[in-house]
Design a protein that fits this description.
By secondary structure, the chain is of the alpha+beta class. It has one domain: GMP Synthetase, Chain A, domain 3 (2-Layer Sandwich), CATH 3.30.300. About 55% of the residues lie in helices and about 15% in strands. The chain is built from five helices and three strands. A three-stranded mixed sheet has the order 1-2-3, with helices on both faces. Strand 1 and strand 2 form a beta hairpin. Helix 1 packs across helix 3. The radius of gyration is 23 Å and the shape is elongated.
Length: about 130
């Protein structure tokens, strides 16, 4: 694991703590999680991927709240992690968890249909075709 990956993981841990315990914005829903942090090689910028449980309005509000709190987050990260440069944060919505849940639902539905078809057995027409 290289240096930027270690720093990304540490920033992810600290930003998660800040969101859960220190940011008191009413636009921020209870179910916000940091899925990944990508820091540039020069450590000047960090893109934080956020997963928000809720409708599109809640997601938009959560991104607005995080954008408003980015200065606070940057200052806190600067105090918590000893870096030469504290990165500027940008927050991006990560819908991979929702996409995975959707795919899982489709798989379960498909598997349920195939189980139902096997439980019914072969059609009577196929039995008549056999000599």
């Amino acid at each position: 694991m290289d240096r930027t990956e270690r720093i990304s993981e540490e920033i992810k841990r600290e930003v998660s703590d800040l969101i859960q315990n220190h940011i008191k914005d009413p636009r921020l829903p209870d179910f916000v999680s940091i899925t990944a942090v990508r820091v540039t090689k020069d450590l000047r910028y960090a893109r934080v991927y956020v997963s928000v449980l809720g409708d599109d309005e809640k997601k938009k509000d959560a991104l607005a709240a995080l954008g408003s709190a980015s200065g606070f987050i940057r200052r806190e990260i600067g105090q918590r992690i000893n870096l030469r440069y504290t990165p500027e944060f940008s927050f991006k919505l990560d819908d991979s968890i929702e996409h995975g849940m959707y795919l899982s639902k489709l798989i379960n539905e498909t598997m349920g249909q195939s189980r139902d078809n096997r439980a019914k057995g072969p059609d009577n027409d196929e039995k008549d075709k056999v000599d």
